[in-house]
Amino acid sequence: MRDNVKGGALTEVTFFILLALYTPKHGYAIMQFIEEATGGRLSLGAGTLYGAINSLLEKEWIEPHGDADGRKKEYVITSKGKEVAEAELKRLKALTGIASGIIGGGS
Hints:
Layout: H1 12-20, E1 25-26, H2 27-37, H3 46-59, E2 62-65, E3 74-77, H4 79-103
Antiparallel strand pairs: 1-3, 2-3
Helix pairs in contact: 1-2
């Protein structure tokens, strides 16, 4: 996963996973959230999702939630992950503000 914490962009998949985990979810629920939120434009396979989850766990942007003894492990965003997601939202707002000024249209 090529996410740059120091002012660079997150991948779209990473950003959506972080957004999904503002409430605890298991892997399949994360995939459903992303597919629904993007109108089907993004559809993750299990391998892609669980690779991303492992990377986010290593970065401490997400953590396991609740009892992990069951078959469905749930995850939730950490305070560090929220800081990263909020920084990405700020970056995207600045980007769209510049683009709107050039292309026109937006407020």
